[in-house]
Write a structure and sequence with these properties.
- By secondary structure, the protein is α+β, with helices and mostly antiparallel strands.
- Helices cover 35% and strands 19% of the residues.
- The protein contains 5 helices and 5 strands, in the order E-H-H-E-E-E-H-E-H-H.
- Helix 3 links the parallel strand 4 and strand 5.
- The longest helix has 13 residues.
- It is globular, with a radius of gyration of 17 Å.
- The mean pLDDT is 90.
């Protein structure tokens, strides 16, 4: 396995982060929210809010994952509620970079407890998070309301 390092996200990373998000959302069962891909401008605003108004952003620290040759492999972040998330570009997956990047991030951001929200149908991600010694804690159930019924209630 080649090594990797992490560095804090910078404004110049906006486009590559959008590409990471696009790849992530195109991966079957990766998302737990089902949210569609935002427009690039919305994604850029999200990054800029992190950089310029972090006290009002959900992410505490956001890092780019880089290999020894300086290539960007993915990104990892930790939210203010201690939830971690990760995305390694498909061609660099299953090479140990994700494990190393998350461990580096946790070392840089020590907490008593960390959380990860993983779609249980995403078996590679479930295996990945278990390698980091995360254990199942709970099941999250979701019910979506029919928008026409919700609209009627608000009238």
């Amino acid at each position: 396995m080649n090594g990797c390092e992490i560095r804090l996200v910078e404004e110049k990373d906006t486009e590559i982060l959008f590409e990471h998000l696009k790849e992530f959302l195109e991966t079957p069962n990766a998302s737990t929210t089902g949210n569609p891909l935002p427009r690039f401008e919305e994604s850029k605003q999200f990054v800029m809010k992190y950089l310029n108004e972090n006290e009002n952003h959900e992410y505490n620290r956001w890092y780019m994952v880089i290999n020894n040759e300086g290539k960007i492999l993915g990104n990892v972040y930790i939210k203010k509620d201690n939830t971690i998330a990760y995305h390694i570009i498909k061609k660099y997956q299953k090479q140990g970079f994700g494990i190393e990047a998350v461990r580096l991030m946790m070392k840089e951001n020590p907490r008593k407890t960390y959380f990860a929200v993983v779609n249980m149908k995403n078996e590679p991600s479930v295996e990945f998070i278990k390698k980091l010694e995360f254990r199942e804690k709970a099941f999250i159930f979701e019910k979506k309301n029919n928008t026409s019924e919700t609209d009627k209630e608000e009238l």
